[in-house]
Specification:
The complex is a heterodimer. By secondary structure, chain A is α/β, with parallel strands linked by helices. Chain A is built from 16 helices and 27 strands. Chain B is α/β, with parallel strands linked by helices. The chains are: A alpha/beta, B alpha/beta.
Chain lengths: 585, 615
């Protein structure tokens, strides 16, 4: 690219040939007003407010800075008298259409217009076309267009009707310089998508994410809906974004696997009496955690949906745990994280905090002490399972509040507590596909949690050699326990690897090729998938390493082709006989 | 079979509106009836240009010009002229200015024709535009043969460059330079170039392009094929406005015939050159005459202009290098190739062989309308003075009224006053006088024309036709129109003239396309030459031309009115009352100022006077 020299407002500078004047001026910090310009869109050049004076030799031209390609030797004046005269009239013209738009009022102030000569119109669309262009060029939805010619020109959808092509992405409202476009929100959807989720389809999932890189959410990304947009690709300076990337399946051969597939937070939708999804200010533990995070959408502030701080907050314990209708077990972690929430709410907002609990389970080092500290801080504890959350007031105090109905078992009364916010201490459920995963790895799975080989002696091993488990996939547990288990599993794997060899069982089953009829009954029976079928020889074959010599196959083989090694039937009978010898004698 | 005589009947839109097809039919019937079928042939030709006198019939080889020949007089014409050999006196043309009418029988002697120089319109009224053989008989397509067999593309471009041919669509950009740029741009980027013929003639009162296509469509096609050869392209479009059905029909026929004869399509004249032309209809937007808007429309998008800092000749239709020329420009090409650049540049002004910007060579077709005796289509060499055009060819102002101004260049042109009548008509003179050549509309105005109203009319036309894409054009025209409306209604403010000046200047600075930057010309040029009229509207509330309805009223002169009652019949709103033989009264509250009563009154008792301020 050729480099050219030019002068802008007396400043000599260089730039690539045919760079738009506006871009060069911006680099020099010279402000040129724009209305129809947006960096992600091609210059359009219709508002003409960025008009500048360009001199080359004797020739003087008035051009629009946004799209005028600079050439060698030109001199640009961005604020000459002529430029100001032209811009002033353009502002007055625009105000005769849109007289009360803030961006125009500011421009009018900048250009010394006290009262526009053509009056002030009541419209708020300046016909800059940004919305039309973002919808067609970026989003690719082509919902908006210009209709009518000349003075009756307007932005509209086809025939002025609601378009089924609109994906409600909000890009038009985002680029509109005058605020003429408003998106009518479905408040429920927005509460789900905006304050507590990621703000954009492309985001770093959370501050501690590893790797610390943004990811694209396939479901909400406009590109995957319409095939257009790719704004992120345009603005990424290092060109790191590749929309063509797809999920890849890679096969890696390993000698051992540690399963750490975790849990799924219990779904409070299943407990409709707590009103989750119906009330804006009923949050799950995870949502509250996200709000509470310094990198979250509120910057760590605890706020209600109306951006006010709560005055009273309730925390309902055992949501989805210790419940006959859901998970019967105790999720182990909820009491402690609920106490942490209570402490933080108290500290950040000074709000009154109510805990509705069945039993406080603060086992282990330092936990009980923390509970006592909260009692001293004045956090309220009401012993009793919360019955329901409602917004139906019975008295003045309850108007505009969420009311928790609860039986206080310590005083033997049903109470109604009015609150601003309710946090549900949701429990831990097994991951949805745990059973499927267990089948893949030939391990057993009870209650949706993976079974260890032995609850006391082999807590991280499984019945299958080389498969280990750690963390909440084995059962509900907190972070310290998870870390301890994971370390243990890692050590076991390490010990396998450092040995460099593995010991296999000697007492395994073998197939007598002569006798095997190829019925395949044993193939499906083997819980360890140690038996496969040799298609060439039409017989079943046992993998010596996988077989643990349980003998199930041997017992089931109709043609008695499988024998379990070590003691043969004859040997066992001989031993029995030997043992009974004295008796008989 | 040779005919003794040919009767040429004009079949241009003007004469067709006067039912010249019926005239032709009547002529043929009578010729058959008189047994002259084997001797006389009737030919329907393209526009003769003298539209005011239609339907026009010319009898060849005598060259006798008849005008206003209707169905009835056709039979008489056959009997008298063709059978008995006597020209029919009362159908001959008589100049209007003379007191004693002496008809001029020969076409070549009629001043309207005598001063014209026919280059583009060389075949008008001579050939049948729907027959390619007629065109070939007058050396048609010989330039194409020359261009593809004897000349290299560079030589063709060189010839056009040296001829000094400048774009006839209004801009006056040298055609040769444009062709060369297009060819180079295509070569450099290795992209197929396109050529386009702009036949989206939208100026009110302009019909040059239509007449050229209607009278000689093959000339346009031949020009385009030569252009395609020079630029090296295989695809061409003719963008024609929807309102020109006859022209479109003739083009379609001409293209079909040219394909049959091997002038279009694959392997043209067995030289291996491929080129074809497609006709695209505009949807009726004035702005589509602008190059970038035209190309957007060609591509099937909304016809709106785009910023033109990158020229269409480099990035035009589908981002391909696109050479756009007007109908008249293309029609000039075959003659330049045939007769040479020297011959072409000998007409017109300036030394253009070295530099086409030095002058205006060749001829220009104008459609002359308005307050002039000989309205019609004319072609004159560049550099002829306005006086020669308006008074010699145009025959002066009807009713012996005073010439006031001539508006050139279409709605974005300007009004030139009597002082400038001796100005030569060429691209640069018109531009420096605040008007422009435009595509060649010429509207003559007499002293009854109000210049404020003229400016208001054009601005109102442009306001309706502005696409509304950029702010200065959309809002500038609207605010100009508001100010002009105020002035013509007698409500003008003292600072309105300054405001109009400011709006005009900012529009010239800031509009997106050439239509916008020139849209203030009608206001600025009338302000320049006729400011006094604006002043009298604003300060005195008087329209000097007596044309602005809000500033005039009609009164009945009691001295002159003899109560004949004629005016009562002519008044559609029953504003005039009075008994027969008694003095009549005009009710000003009912009068809509149509002026019909003035026409009815034989005693000139009804007067148009400035409106009294008390009212």
């Amino acid at each position: 690219m050729k480099t050219i020299k030019l002068k802008i407002d007396g400043i000599e500078t260089t730039a690539d040939d045919r760079t738009p004047v506006l871009a060069i001026a911006e680099k020099l910090g010279i402000k040129i007003p724009t209305l129809c310009h947006h960096p992600i869109l091609e210059p359009y050049g219709v508002c003409r407010i960025c008009t500048v004076e360009v001199r080359s030799g004797k020739r003087v031209r008035m051009v629009t800075a946004c799209n005028y390609p600079a050439t060698n030797g030109i001199e640009v004046l961005t604020n000459s008298e002529r430029v100001r005269r032209d811009r002033k009239l353009i502002i007055e013209w625009l105000m005769s259409r849109c007289g009360h738009v803030p961006i125009l009022e500011q421009l009018a102030k900048d250009y010394g217009i006290v009262e526009p000569r053509f009056g002030r119109g009541d419209d708020d669309c300046i016909l800059c076309g940004l919305c039309v262009r973002v919808c067609s060029d970026i989003v690719g939805a082509n919902v908006l267009g210009f209709f009518g010619r000349g003075t009756i020109r307007e932005v509209s959808t086809a025939y002025g009707e609601t378009s089924s092509r609109c994906i409600a992405c909000g890009a038009c409202a985002y680029v509109c310089p005058t605020g003429a476009i408003r998106i009518e929100n479905d408040s429920e959807l927005v509460r789900q998508a905006l304050p507590l989720g990621p703000l954009t389809p492309i985001a770093i999932p959370f501050m501690q994410a590893v790797p610390h890189k943004p990811v694209i959410d396939y479901d909400s990304c406009i590109h995957f809906k319409t095939g257009e947009c790719k704004v992120c690709e345009k603005v990424c300076e290092v060109k790191a974004i590749d929309h063509k990337q797809t999920d890849q399946i890679e096969e890696i051969e390993v000698g051992a696997v540690i399963l750490t597939t975790g849990f799924k937070a219990a779904d409070p939708h299943a407990i409709p009496e707590y009103g989750y999804g119906r009330f804006d200010n009923v949050l799950t533990g995870m949502e509250f955690e996200r709000m509470n995070s310094a990198s979250g959408p509120t910057g760590g502030k605890i706020l209600l949906a109306n951006n006010q701080e709560p005055k009273q907050v309730g925390i309902i314990h055992c949501v989805g745990s210790r419940d006959e209708r859901h998970n019967k077990y105790c999720s182990r972690v909820c009491c402690m994280y609920a106490l942490k929430f209570a402490h933080l709410i108290k500290e950040k907002t000074g709000a009154e905090v109510y805990n509705f609990y069945i039993d406080m389970r603060c086992f282990g080092k330092g936990y009980e002490e923390f509970y006592h500290r909260l009692l001293e801080e004045g956090v309220r504890f009401i012993r009793g399972r919360a019955a329901s959350v409602t917004d139906f007031p019975l008295n003045d105090k309850e108007i505009g509040k969420l009311v928790v109905r609860v039986e206080d078992t310590l005083i033997g009364q049903v109470r109604r507590i009015p609150l601003d916010m309710v946090v549900l201490a949701t429990g831990l459920s097994p991951a949805e596909d745990a059973a499927k995963l267990a089948r893949t790895f030939h391990i057993s799975c009870g209650d949706g949690f993976f079974m260890e080989r032995h609850p006391k002696l082999a807590p991280v091993s499984t019945a299958t050699d080389g498969i280990f488990i750690a963390g909440a996939c084995q059962g509900p547990k907190d972070i310290p326990d998870t870390v301890a288990q994971a370390s243990a599993a890692a050590s076991l794997v390490q010990s396998l690897m450092s040995k460099g060899e593995i010991e296999v069982e000697s007492a395994i089953s073998v197939v007598d090729a002569e006798k095997c009829a190829g019925c395949k009954i044993c193939n499906t029976l083997c819980s360890l998938s140690a038996i496969s079928f040799d298609e060439e020889k039409k017989i079943s074959v046992i993998n010596d390493v996988l077989c643990k010599g349980c003998g199930t196959c041997a017992a089931a083989c109709p043609s008695a082709a499988i024998t379990a090694r070590h003691f043969t039937d004859e040997q066992l009978f001989a031993e029995i006989e030997g043992a009974l010898y004295d008796v008989r004698a | 079979m040779a005919f003794r005589s040919h009767v040429l009947v004009c079949a241009g839109t003007g004469c067709v509106s006067g039912d010249s097809f019926a005239t032709a039919k009547a002529l043929e019937t009578e010729i058959q009836k008189q047994g002259l079928g084997g001797e006389v042939q009737v030919i329907r030709t393209g526009c003769q240009g003298f539209c005011a006198q239609g339907p026009i019939v010319i009898v060849q080889p005598d060259g006798i010009f008849y005008c206003g020949v209707n169905q009835k007089s056709a039979a008489f014409l056959v009997q008298e002229h063709l059978l008995k050999g006597r020209p029919v006196k009362n159908l001959l043309y008589s100049p209007p200015a003379e007191e004693k009418k002496s008809p001029i029988p020969a076409l070549k002697d009629i001043p309207f024709f005598a001063k014209q120089k026919l280059v583009v319109l060389r075949n008008r009224g001579i050939i049948d535009p729907e027959r390619i053989d007629d065109y070939i008989a007058v050396d048609g397509y010989s330039a194409l043969v020359k261009a593809v067999t004897e000349m290299s593309p560079e030589q063709v471009i060189g010839e056009i460059k040296r001829s000094g041919l400048r774009g006839r669509g209004g801009g006056g950009f040298p055609a040769g330079i444009k062709w060369e740029t297009c060819r180079h741009a295509a070569k450099a980027r290795d992209v197929e170039p396109v050529i386009v013929c702009n036949a989206d003639e939208g100026d009110p009162g302009a019909f040059m392009d239509r007449s050229i296509i209607e009278s000689d469509p093959h000339a346009v096609l031949e020009g385009m094929i030569i252009g395609a050869r020079a630029i090296g392209c295989h695809e061409g479009f003719i963008y024609i406005r929807h309102e020109y059905p006859l022209a479109r029909e003739r083009l379609v026929k001409a293209i079909e015939q040219a394909r049959d004869y091997g002038f279009l399509g694959k392997d043209i004249l067995h030289t291996g050159m491929d080129f074809d032309i497609e006709i695209v209809q505009g949807a009726g937007a004035f702005v589509c005459g602008e190059s970038t808007a035209l190309m957007a429309s060609l591509e099937g998008r909304v016809g709106e202009p785009r910023a033109k800092y990158i020229h269409t000749v480099e990035y035009g239709y589908q981002n391909r290098p696109t050479n756009l020329n007007n109908v008249e420009t293309w029609a000039n090409v075959p003659l330049i190739i045939n007769r040479g650049a020297e011959w072409f540049s000998s007409m017109g002004t300036g030394e253009v062989i070295e530099n086409p910007w030095n002058g205006s060579s060749g001829t220009k077709v104008f459609s002359m309308v308005g307050k002039v005796n000989n309205t019609g289509l004319i072609e004159v060499p560049m550099g002829m003075t306005l006086r020669e055009i308006v008074f010699d060819i145009g025959g002066g102002i009807p009713g012996g009224r005073k010439f006031k101004a001539v508006q050139t260049g279409g709605p974005s042109g300007g009004c030139l006053p009597a002082d400038l009548l001796d100005m030569p008509v060429d691209f640069d003179s018109l531009t420096s006088a605040g008007s422009m050549m435009g595509s060649g509309g010429m509207i003559v105005m007499d002293d009854q024309t109000c210049m404020v109203e003229v400016a208001r009319y054009f601005i109102s036309f442009l306001t309706e036709e502005s696409c509304g894409k950029c702010v200065p054009c959309r809002e500038g025209l609207r605010t100009s129109l508001e100010a002009l409306n105020r002035i013509t209604q007698g409500k003008g403010k003292a600072d309105d003239i300054d405001l109009l000046h400011e709006i005009g200047a900012v529009m010239q600075d800031c509009c997106l396309c050439a239509l916008g930057t020139s849209a203030s010309n009608p206001v600025l040029s009338t302000l320049q030459y006729f400011k006094a009229e604006f002043d009298s509207h604003i300060k005195d509330h008087v329209c000097p031309a007596g044309s602005c309805k809000d500033l005039i009223e009609y009164v009945i002169d009691p001295e002159k009115c003899d109560g004949c009652h004629a005016c009562v019949a002519g008044c559609s709103t029953k504003a005039i009352m009075g008994d027969v033989k008694k003095q009549h009264i005009l009710d000003k509250t009912l009068c809509i100022k149509c002026g019909a009563c003035v026409e009815m009154c034989k005693r000139e008792a009804i007067l148009k006077v400035p409106r009294s301020h008390a009212a």
